[in-house]
Amino acid sequence: MIKLAVIGTNWITDQFIEGALKTGLYELTAVYSRRLESAKSFAEKYGNVQLFDDLAILGGSVDVDAVYIASPNSFHAPQAIELMKAGKHVICEKPVASNYTQAQAMYRAAKENNVVLFEAFITPHLPNFSVLKNALKEIGALRKATISYCQYSSRYQKYLNGENPNTFNPEFSNGSVMDIGFYCVGTAIELFGEPESIQAKAHMLNSGVDGCGSVILGYPGFDVVIGHSKISDSYIPSEFQGEDAALMVDMISICNSVTKKIRGGDSTDISVPQDDNRMRYEAAEAARQISENKMVSQQSERSLIVAKVLTEIRRQTGVVFPADDSVSAAG
């Protein structure tokens, strides 16, 4: 049984805890927040767990094997590196870091301290993602992929009202491509590897982050066209076009369904059932790696490539984070 601590007291932490406990491989032993009162309020529903507001003390606790980090993006690298140096395994929400340099430093820290660093990117671990991956072999030569994830943020009105929510604040290494766009970029790289070329454009908000944007990733014989937005909604599926057939995926982040349409023929739903809590699958995979104390090299490499590509996308679109100049966060 893995003794789990969590950092972050929001809905995604609740969802991960629920998914992790469903696997039967974890027990929740601790909650950390910068404000102890927040940790106490969050932890009430989970019974008797330890509360922390000091990361060093958390790192020294014998009642913690692994820490799930769901703090704002800018805290991921410094918190993860400190905890890994203390000998803790880390399950870090996507994106694993603010930039490529930090991501490299994090994986170095994992190796140097003989612990697992697992990026909590839900999509590759879903049953329907495996369906998609296998079906790509059956549609002929791939010629174009369109991966779209656009969802109007519940915090956008606060931004329009003159407030400064984390979602649109560069101080927290946020914005559209680092949040919702990650699923699109991460999916492309999980399926097809590092692209040969990257072309990116974005609509910039006055806060200094992107509200929405487009990316073209070039691969031999085909392009992946990405559309991402936190200031508008989209209702179309992602699509993978082969010479013989096409595949449509509803909600690329959680792969609600996969449909196959033969050229000139019928459409078939090829989906399989998935748990209502999609985070269960990534929690189970993280537990396997932690129990074996061995990271999957392909997953680590994918995380590094995604960080590299996201950093290049931001360079092209002019999104700059304070974390980009942080030497200490890079180890």
**Quaternary structure of the protein:** single chain
CATH class of the largest domain: Alpha Beta
Assign an overall shape.
globular
Q: In whole angstroms, how far apart are the ends?
A: 30 Å
Overall structural domain count: 2
User: How many helix segments?
Assistant: 10
Give me the secondary-structure category.
Answer: alpha/beta
Organism: Vibrio paucivorans
GO molecular function: nucleotide binding
Protein name: Gfo/Idh/MocA family oxidoreductase
Domain GFO/IDH/MocA-like oxidoreductase: 137-226
How is this structure best summarized?
This is Gfo/Idh/MocA family oxidoreductase. Residues 137-226 form the GFO/IDH/MocA-like oxidoreductase domain. With 331 residues, this protein is an alpha/beta fold.
Topology, element by element:
Layout: E1 2-7, H1 11-23, E2 26-32, H2 36-43, E3 50-52, H3 55-59, E4 66-69, H4 73-85, E5 89-93, H5 100-112, E6 117-120, H6 127-135, E7 142-150, H7 156-160, H8 180-192, E8 197-204, E9 210-219, E10 222-229, E11 238-242, E12 245-250, E13 257-262, E14 267-269, H9 279-292, H10 297-317
Parallel strand pairs: 1-2, 1-4, 2-3, 4-5, 5-6, 7-10
Antiparallel strand pairs: 7-11, 8-9, 9-10, 11-12, 12-13, 13-14
Helix pairs in contact: 1-9, 4-5, 5-10, 8-10
Name some characteristics of this structure.
single chain, 331 residues, alpha/beta, Rossmann fold, Dihydrodipicolinate Reductase, domain 2, 2 domains, six-stranded parallel sheet, 10 helices, 14 strands, 34% helix, disordered C terminus, NAD(P)-bd_dom_sf, Gfo/Idh/MocA-like_OxRdtase_N, Gfo/Idh/MocA family oxidoreductase, nucleotide binding, GFO_IDH_MocA-like_dom
